[in-house]
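Problem 12. The chain below contains 125 residues. Write out its predicted structure in token notation.
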Amino acid sequence: MFIMKRLAVFVPFVAMLALAGSSLASPVTVASPQAPEIGGLRNYVTQYEFKGGDRACVIAVGKHKSNVGLYVYDSKGNCVAWDDVGKMATFDDMAVEWYPPQNGIYVVEVHNNGMRSNQCRIFVR
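Solution.
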């Protein structure tokens, strides 16, 4: 039942990304999906360069072990996108979308707010 709830929430979002195809921007550099193991009460930080004026999207999908938050910061340290509120079925599945004003490096940070380690797959589009 839990898996069905989780799929019901994320399948439409993933389908939307797939159908949108080339209308969605991608990072300036090719980004392979990452799957870091994030320790309890720890953060995982990485960075990507995004194209200015195009839609940018980052998705983090955990293993349902702890609550997580997803944050994106511009080169000046301003938080430009975040998702840190989840429902019971999706408390470690986060997605953000924004429009970078110009090409630039953006820092992506996944916060593990729980005591248990959680492996989060990170997709950048």
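Discussion. Helices lie at 2-20. Students who got a different answer should revisit the alignment rule from Section 12.3.
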